[in-house]
Write a structure and sequence with these properties.
- The protein contains three helices and six strands, in the order E-E-E-H-E-H-H-E-E.
- With about 140 residues, the chain is α+β, with helices and mostly antiparallel strands.
- It has one domain (about 15-130): 60s Ribosomal Protein L30, Chain: A (2-Layer Sandwich).
- The strands form two sheets. A four-stranded mixed β-sheet has the order 3-6-4-5. Strands 1-2 form a two-stranded antiparallel sheet.
- The longest helix is centred in the middle third of the chain and has 18 residues, at about 50-65.
- It starts with a strand and ends in a 6-residue tail after the last strand.
């Protein structure tokens, strides 16, 4: 399934994201909870902002794949960060980590700076909405 990109000409041209993603008819919605870099409760989080971003995106994509989807099925990402200057200072390596996982697929995105995240030590959390192909008929 593929999305139709919606980028009205009167809005700022998007770069690395899209204003809107119109889902194909008949898809199944998957709402992915916020994912941090943590994989189990006893694990220490990486100290690197970029590594936390990459692992949070890996965890998010694990949920998408478990539901039968791929990175291209993600229509919306919301990225929560606790340190906007760290995010801005890491744009190049963040872009590389993103493209390793998502390719050149750029969903509608929002970035929000927050004071803290529920997961102690987390500096980034990512949530998503994906539209998966219809379930196979039995």
């Amino acid at each position: 399934m593929s999305f139709e990109r919606v980028n009205p000409p009167e809005l700022v041209p998007p770069r690395g994201w899209n204003h809107g993603m119109l889902a194909p008819a008949g898809g199944r919605l998957l709402f992915v909870a916020g994912q941090t870099a943590r994989r189990d409760e006893s694990e220490r989080l990486p100290s690197s902002f970029v590594e936390q971003f990459a692992r949070a995106l890996d965890n998010l994509l694990a949920v998408v794949r478990a539901a039968g989807g791929t990175a291209e099925d993600v229509g919306r990402l919301t990225v929560y960060v606790t340190d906007l200057p760290a995010y801005q200072a890491s744009l190049k390596p963040l872009g590389e980590a993103y493209r390793e996982r998502m390719g050149r697929h750029f969903p509608a995105m929002a970035l929000v700076e927050v004071n803290a995240l529920v997961d102690p030590g987390a500096v980034v959390e990512i949530e998503a909405t994906a539209v998966l192909p219809p379930a196979p008929r039995e």
